[in-house]
Amino acid sequence: MTGLRKRLSEEKGFSLMPRAMAISSSSCKLPLVAVCQVTSTPDKQQNFKTCAELVREAARLGACLAFLPEAFDFIARDPAETLRLSEPLGGKLLEEYTQLARECGLWLSLGGFHERGRDWEQTQKIYNCHVLLNSKGAVVATYRKTHLCDVEIPGQGPMCESNSTMPGPSLESPVSTPAGKIGLAVCYDMRFPELSLALAQAGAEILTYPSAFGSVTGPAHWEVLLRARAIETQCYVVAAAQCGRHHEKRASYGHSMVVDPWGTVVARCSEGPGLCLAQINLNYLRQLRQHLPVFQHRRPDLYGNLGHPLS
Question: Listed GO molecular functions (predicted)?
Answer without folding.
Answer: deaminated glutathione amidase activity
